[in-house]
Design a protein that fits this description.
The chain is an all-alpha fold and 463 residues long. The protein has a single domain, classed as Sodium/glucose cotransporter (Up-down Bundle). 78% of the residues lie in helices and 0% in strands. It contains 20 helices and no strands. Helix 7 runs parallel beside helix 19 and helix 15 packs across helix 16. The model has no long low-confidence stretch (mean pLDDT 85).
Length: 463
């Protein structure tokens, strides 16, 4: 254990708890708890959405990939993140904001009926749970390196802090803590780039890359086949992600939502570009060495002083927790609105209490998954596979089509979503299946989903 990092951890947790609790307000209904009364400014949405999108894969996985493969690491998370936000800004912000719905299954029921609504609710909740689990995996691995805690104890500590402010203030608390966390992660990333740039040069990196046999280190299209599949999977999933819908719905106006999305795209482009530079510049520090943990963890532990190390430590925590709290909150929204309120009449429920209990349930399920998987990229990849294969086709269709197409939605969701669930269970070794693994599985699942939708359309016409 390194006592100084325990101090940084305590100070950081106290800060986010104070902010989260300070901005919580008395809430009367689910719109207050999960949509911040639909009154968030464009600036708050920009800061919160940027922090939510810049998670563990952004700062841990992407830097590791950049160190190994060079500039093409931008494909892993950076390219799909920027592309997704631009698609939302140009094409989907207006239609989604005007729908005046709370969750995606609300729209599913209008277009495909109640049965498809229930199936989509299960798929979406499962996606949010696995996404939260991917951040917990990162949290456990990161904290145990510096604090000497076990992996499970590290998971439990971080999850407990997120639960405290998420259950207290709902989306409002999540948004304001994300603002703080955005400031920390941006400062940490910028500080590390400046530190590394002062200790090497582009010419030195070129020499070391050539010496190490990294022929595609400065080729953006290096390893394009696998990188394109990963980017494709993330883009499909994130375009229809409930996280984006929740932020768009919480905006005061369509204009505020659209301006926030454009600002988010620009900031993500900058942040991911800096992350790739961190990995590339680090080649000079770790050339010929075998890393025992994530690159950023190694830099914090052995290459920087106490002040910058502390800033980087809390920056990584901010990146992880800002995505984790969003995933838990959004998953709880769907669990409350699309499961609890479908089973129990609203008159018999206290909606805010139900939202808080749903927050606890989503976090608990994510915690259990995080104890089974310890690969950040694999876990977040499996989460994206759920939406990309199971929900992208019917999800995009229902936004622009006003017709009721229950068979098309049902067959598309069952074929694509069923494939993604079987692939997930095979990856967990729950079922003895030999299905293609992510990201190679994405074209198969997406094709099944498209086929199901087309078959459903044909059946709709002849029945």
């Amino acid at each position: 254990m390194k006592p100084e990092f325990l101090f940084f951890l305590a100070a950081y947790f106290v800060l986010v708890l104070l902010v989260g609790l300070a901005f919580s307000r008395r809430m009367k209904n689910l719109e207050d708890f999960f949509l911040a009364s639909r009154n968030l400014s464009g600036r708050l949405i920009f800061l919160s959405l940027t922090a939510a999108w810049f998670g563990a894969t952004s700062i841990l996985v992407s830097t590791d990939e950049a160190l190994k493969t060079g500039i093409s690491a931008f494909w892993i998370v950076g390219l799909p993140a920027v592309a997704t936000v631009l698609v939302l800004a140009f094409f989907l912000a207006g239609p989604l904001h005007r729908l005046r719905i709370m969750t995606i299954p609300d729209l599913v029921e209008l277009r495909y009926g109640r049965l498809v609504r229930h199936l989509s609710s299960v798929l979406i909740i499962w996606y949010m749970v696995v996404l939260a689990a991917s951040q917990m995996v990162a949290l456990g691995q990161f904290l145990k390196t510096f604090l000497g805690f076990s992996y499970v104890a590290s998971l439990a500590l971080g999850t407990a802090v997120v639960l405290l402010y998420s259950m207290s203030g709902g989306l409002r608390s999540v948004v304001f803590t994300d603002v703080v966390q955005f400031s920390l992660l941006a400062a940490g990333v910028a500080g590390l780039v400046i530190f590394l740039a002062g200790r090497t040069s582009g010419q030195e990196i070129l020499r070391l890359a050539s010496q190490s046999g990294k022929s595609g280190y400065f080729h953006f299209l290096h390893n394009i086949k696998e990188n394109a599949l990963i980017a494709f999977s993330f883009t499909l999933a994130w375009t229809i992600s409930p996280i984006a819908l929740q932020r768009i719905q919480a905006a005061r106006t369509v204009r505020a939502a659209r301006r926030a999305l454009f600002a988010t795209a620009a900031m993500l482009f900058l942040l991911y570009g800096l992350v790739v530079l961190i990995g590339i510049f680090s080649l000079a520090l770790f050339s010929g060495e075998t890393l025992s943990g994530p690159l950023v963890s190694e830099i914090i532990a052995s290459k920087v002083g106490l002040l910058l190390g502390g800033l980087l430590f809390v920056a990584v925590l901010a990146a992880i927790l800002s995505t984790m709290d969003t995933a838990i909150n959004t998953g709880a929204l769907s669990l409350t609105k699309d499961v609890c309120l479908q089973i129990f009449p609203a008159s018999r429920m206290r909606p805010v209490l139900a939202g808080r209990l749903a927050t606890l349930v989503v976090a608990g399920l994510a915690f259990l998954i995080a104890t089974r998987f310890q690969s950040i990229l694999k876990t977040i990849g499996l989460s994206s596979e759920i939406l990309a294969e199971g929900f992208f086709v019917p999800g995009i269709a229902m936004i622009f089509s006003k017709k009721r197409l229950p068979l098309a939605g049902l067959l598309s969701l069952c074929l694509g979503g069923g494939f993604s669930v079987l692939s997930f269970l095979g990856a967990m070794n729950v079922l003895p299946l030999r299905l293609p693994v992510w990201p190679a599985s994405v074209p198969y699942g997406l094709t099944l989903s498209l086929f199901g939708f087309g078959a459903g359309l044909a059946l709709e016409k002849i029945r």
